[in-house]
Amino acid sequence: YRVMYGRYTQELGVYAREEAARIREDGRHRSPPLKLLEYEKGRCVRCRICAVHCQRFLMSRVGEDWIFLILLGLVMALVSFVMDFCIALLLQAQKWMSGGLDSNVILQYLAWVTYPVVLISFSAGFTHIVAPQAAGSGIPEMKTILRGVVLKEYLTLKTFVAKVVGLTCALGSGLPLGKEGPFVHIASLCAALLCKFMSFFGGIYENESRNTEMLAAACAVGVGCCFAAPIGGVLFSIEVTSTFFAVRNYWRGFFAATFSAFIFRVLAVWNRDEETITALFKTRFRLDFPFDLQELPAFAVIGIASGFGGALFVYLNRLIVQFMRKQKTINKFLMKKRLLYPALVTLLISTLSFPPGFGQFMAGQLTQKETLVSFFDNRTWTKQGMTEDFNYDSHSAAWKHPQANVFVILVIFIVMKFWMSALATTLPVPCGAFMPVFVIGAAFGRLVGESMAAWFPEGINTDGIIYPIVPGGYAVVGAAALSGAVTHTVSTAVIVFELTGQISHILPIMIAVILANAVAQSLQPSIYDSIIRIKKLPYLPELGWGHHEKYNIRVEDIMVRDVRYITLNSTYRDLHEILLIGNLKTVALVESAESMILLGSIERAQLQALLTQHLSRERRLEFIRDRADAERKRVSVVSTPSSEEGGQKVNHEVRFQISTEESSFTPARPISPKPLKPALKRTSTAEKNIEIPTSPHDSGIGLKNLLCARPQTDAMERVCVCVCVCVFQEDPDAEDDMTLGEIEEWEEQQLDEQVNFNSCKIDPAPFQLVERTSLHKTHTIFSLLGLDHAYVTSIGRLIGVVSLRELRKAIEGSMTVKGVKVRPPLASFRDSGTSGTSSESEATELHKLWDRHTSISIPREHQPNTSDSDEKSQ
Amino acid sequence: YRVMYGRYTQELGVYAREEAARIREDGRHRSPPLKLLEYEKGRCVRCRICAVHCQRFLMSRVGEDWIFLILLGLVMALVSFVMDFCIALLLQAQKWMSGGLDSNVILQYLAWVTYPVVLISFSAGFTHIVAPQAAGSGIPEMKTILRGVVLKEYLTLKTFVAKVVGLTCALGSGLPLGKEGPFVHIASLCAALLCKFMSFFGGIYENESRNTEMLAAACAVGVGCCFAAPIGGVLFSIEVTSTFFAVRNYWRGFFAATFSAFIFRVLAVWNRDEETITALFKTRFRLDFPFDLQELPAFAVIGIASGFGGALFVYLNRLIVQFMRKQKTINKFLMKKRLLYPALVTLLISTLSFPPGFGQFMAGQLTQKETLVSFFDNRTWTKQGMTEDFNYDSHSAAWKHPQANVFVILVIFIVMKFWMSALATTLPVPCGAFMPVFVIGAAFGRLVGESMAAWFPEGINTDGIIYPIVPGGYAVVGAAALSGAVTHTVSTAVIVFELTGQISHILPIMIAVILANAVAQSLQPSIYDSIIRIKKLPYLPELGWGHHEKYNIRVEDIMVRDVRYITLNSTYRDLHEILLIGNLKTVALVESAESMILLGSIERAQLQALLTQHLSRERRLEFIRDRADAERKRVSVVSTPSSEEGGQKVNHEVRFQISTEESSFTPARPISPKPLKPALKRTSTAEKNIEIPTSPHDSGIGLKNLLCARPQTDAMERVCVCVCVCVFQEDPDAEDDMTLGEIEEWEEQQLDEQVNFNSCKIDPAPFQLVERTSLHKTHTIFSLLGLDHAYVTSIGRLIGVVSLRELRKAIEGSMTVKGVKVRPPLASFRDSGTSGTSSESEATELHKLWDRHTSISIPREHQPNTSDSDEKSQ
Predict the structure, then answer these.
(1) Of A601, A634, A833, B315, which is most buried with the most CB atoms under 10 A?
(2) What is the pTM assigned to this prediction?
């Protein structure tokens, strides 16, 4: 169902770009009429000229990147601001409701609980009805899309609406959910929609590789305008979504994210929320002496603990999803009542955080934002001497319980929020995990900070001056470390600087984040990779580093040796068999079965088109006409009545057509595919040399039988069976008077003909690897070029093929999740046999080629007749 | 002289890695003796066992990346700290000298001037003698090296010593020079040397692609420990040195740079320079209200002006270099007296900055660091009400001149420093341009800030509260903007945050930096690209963005159609002619001249080896022996005396061997090449299937004549002519009794034989492009894979070749420095002819192949004898 593209569609993208440029060029050439207009008189004409000029100027400008980026930034800033505003309203409404009912605890509880349940249910229901793919974070999908996989339904207007509305409701419910991941998705949606919109003005937008670049910038904008953190946004989006990053895109990201963050904060100033542009969670730590060297071990401890915590979070999250999936009875029940699961989870979480209930032990009345502000506060909550005269502001007061210690409350908060967040992020609503994890990390940091403050109540003595400990600094470190561990990124450090507006703790934060990453990366995949695995998205896993045994695996160990190929002198029957076996996306074209010299690759759909065309009704009618002509001639000679064998006519028949791939090359397209990438739209013009049969009744009946027999192995692919009942219109100039038997006979006969590749689009240079290419290098090349498969050749001879699947297997084989390293059997073999054998085999290979060549050249030298024919053909 | 590597040496790198792994594996298998040892008794043995265990553990650990990165960070932090210490000492000495002589102005002047002249002369002389390649920034060279070009003399111990000593002296002189660029180079040198050193322990270090990864991390470390800015360092190094960045390297950079910055700052704390770890140029701006929205236009003005200024700086710098080069008389004179130019420039600059002289109008007594501290100061220098009670500290006092206005002094400072910096950075000493530009930018920002403070003396009124203007904030913005404009980077913003320890001005800084970049990038290349062009380093220029006409250029427009190739049935004479023509690095191997099917590529040196081996003395002696055997048989039958034609014996002759490439494959290596990349060392083992003749006298005399005739077109390549006078030792088991005429005849005869490629290393899958690949895509692929050349194929047939040179020409042709865009003639042609023609030509191409194929298959079908022989050979 998802078409992976490699080299080929990129070519098409380039083609589309050229085509667009040509169209625009044409537009320019059409300018003379304007000059003619100028000779006419009258005011109206001048106005029109002016308007045309303006329009043309706008047109030429609209194609520029920076216009697009500014628009994107602007739109996203507005979206972010409006959403924040709505979320704040929703949260206030909850407080107001439960606050207004403080006379009756039960009523208060009902109000407190019903509100989020309704919101989450609405969010889940809305998302499910409008666009189910809007659920979840969106970063895993963006990662997959930027890898080069086309997941088109993830970038539609419907998804945009579902994501924005769903996210607003989900966050308004007060559950521990984040908005970072969804914002990355929303920004990408925005970019994709803007691209579509802008393509009305200039053709340059209809280009795939440019769209990918814009999507990369959009990811940065998403993070940037979510946290008003342009630099952190760019870095985070790079780390999270890319494998290889083009530095020339860097600029785009910075530009758009900065603009977006700027507008986002300016809106806040205009709305009188802020006096001027400052950070979202402004801190006021000391500048002159932010921390002491002796505090560094504590920061390191936070980092290491966060690493374990982050890995645990990812594990817990996956465990919950897998548990829900495995329990078939639960699963079935939940499938039927889709809104029940979200509602139950919300009920559980909001019951536990009900402020007069258990919530009093975990500051249940605070929103995420308030919690963070209280964590990042300078003042300690424990210091004995100051506890009394410490005028609690509303936020910090939540942490002061008459019965319980601050430490106990913090521990309860951390533990409860931990599983709550892991649970809440599995809900089928648009939600991210970054912010909840960030809050938990801050809580943990605060806990350590408060402990340190309790341990050194007088502060730390340095050179005679005593500096008190700032627990807020620890909270900042903890937040960066835990969110870094969960997402496997270092740039959370930068996000934290931008969020707090202070960079004074740079070294502790960097140290903690790096330690947390080191621990978490060795234990679990990142939350996004984990979701990619859960969702089984077609993504190439990352190579861990330091796994030296991967250098020992070579392409020859993992490649599929049994390559399907067609030769230049294949018959249509061979072609047909190839199409029956398996579900290859492309088929290799070799010179001959003996030489196996790789000439190119042909897409499956192209071959289908070839076959369909060859067995088409037109050709059959032509055949009938020719036969009739011959008959007539014969009749004119022999003069006997023509053969009118009684047989069922094939005019009214039901034909099946199965297409397993939604390729744009589908020969007969009953469901018109709406490609996301506008470049694909243009492929039809690109293929104008192929006469694609446009109505489904062109395919022969023999073809029908054969295509239906095709085994449907891949369960992932949605097979769209299109039953096209074609009531035949009377064709005026041709009469199809063949019987079924005759048709089959004709088709059998046609199948034995040699394939004519002239009207077929061949990829003349598919990517090639060598047997001895290492896994490491193969992975790099696949990631770099976004390949789907590569042929393995040895001195021009095709000997195997490696696709993403083999590569993924090999990587996961050599590095399983649990750290058990398995080497493919062949790799160990080679260690004992030295390289001498392989170089020998190389020589043998060449020998073969050599021998073959000389044997070919022998007739040329000794038999002048064949060499003549050879030369003539050149 | 510089060997560019593409795919092939990477293969070898992989091979080396495997080889190393194998050796280590072997080492492990050799463990049993240890166990045997345990059965022996005695204390000493136990100690030994323990030692061996420890050693083994260390060995296994030493191979890990993080050990390497920590070591690198540690070493670089120490180097940075010690250098800073020495530079501070040198600067103090100058002040002390001129301060001690304040009784006599002339003596003071002499002391002030002589000191930097001596230091710079020493630096230039030392650099010139020890390692001339240490001069200059080093970033352009690193950029080229990371692009994949081997510039081996840039990464030696000598260069390291020259760079460190030279840089210390140069910076100690007080000239406006920076240390950022050289630090990037020093860090890379450190990494290269550490790699070499570590390879004594574990073989895993002998790997090229790993070294490149380490070099990328080292660049980050260089910036990181120079400014104690780990994040900015990583980003700056990415922006400056990479085109495509592997995100998996990101982590490495962060890790090493953070560790390095940490140690660097901890050393300062231990040295009692600082109380705790803080930023280098700590600022104390207001946190609550850093700036007002109404100030933003001023920041934008700083950004735009900095953009123009940055472009002007790059232009001026290049102009000076080109002027010095063009003036041949000056040039000649300077070539003779190498130290004169630096001395004169130093004299000029230090005379102008002499504090009691003109220096009083440009704060000449302040060092760079003091200047920056004074610029970043919170307090305004102009505010009327406070001028009197403003207790000037020593630094700010320098800007207060009794006669001149602050504005005048700032303007003089900016103008003077501008040309001084541009001039000073052309000196042949290790020096960077970042810091001087940073200071000028700060001065400009301060100027704007002071102007704003003078314009709004009461500060800006917002909501009734009046906030005074902070000129230091403007200075920070200006510094980031100008350095960003000169280097074409956005990450200077991050460096500034880390340098000042404050992030409150994030939005103004980002806006200014982006505007400055936009302006500067449209006017001039970055300073590093400018130096790359001046030095003519083999680097691929970057594609500007938004140049749509590049989408119209295709590979077929720029490729070289006249490809040199050899076929499977080439004779040694063909091979020989190929070697004579031009200086190709690799030669394409095609199936036959008719089919032109590309089978692979062979390196020039391999072909030379083949030829040399074929005409070697051994083979000749064998021939003589065979002839003698035949003779003897004939003698035994006919019994006539053997032919003893009187001729000069060839035992004592002078043979020439010219090798224009320092390839490791050089058949006879009189000068043993010292490859930087340790991977190359191992190639000799990789090539053990090639019998490389080890002494120069193996080459025949005919070969000599022919090789000498080779035209030496490329002036860039240093031709090392090695005259090897080989006094022949008496060979016991063979006697070379052929005359020169006989030898020539024999060689002529040998040259007509078909080449036997069996012992030749063929790259079986050279990179292939298609005719219609766009320039944009070609550029991407070349940058991504670090290619040197790529073959253009059409359905397997070789039709052209594109090398870096063609690509560079095409890019520079379509986008010259001055902004004039030239399209290749063919690109405009294609616009009129639609895509129909090209698809037609594609079909024709296939037709040909098809026809050729059928003509080949005809004899197989009709003549069973040939097809039999064909099948047998398979």
Answers:
(1) A601
(2) 0.72
